Amino acid sequence: FHKLVFPVEEVFPPNVYFLYYANDEKFTRMVEYKRFTRHKSPTTLIGLEIPSHNGKFYPLPFQSEIERAEKYFRDMPEGVFSMGRAGTYRYAIDIDDCIEQAMEIAVVLKQGGQEHPVPVAKWREIDVFSQKDR
Description:
Mean pLDDT: 81
């Protein structure tokens, strides 16, 4: 991850918060953070997200890593939930999916009977070959 401060109010066009790069660039995404907060400033901060095996923040779709995640799920005690991108071992999870998982956790906490650490069944099976899980 690299941070760059530019001496201009905005870098991206209106209504653009982030840009994805899937070509030969070393980074995968650029983010202009003040777009989210609507902060007013004469400068702007851009983040460049660069994949790395050090300090992994997102899951990597390797069989050995998937097996490790499944072991973690099996070993989690009842009452512990695992959700979101890192918690369900999927990069393809968006905020609406996280909200769905949180709402399901609320239901499980009220009704009891937790079946699995990952609260929504469609996010439990990890498909290493899927671009967009389910």
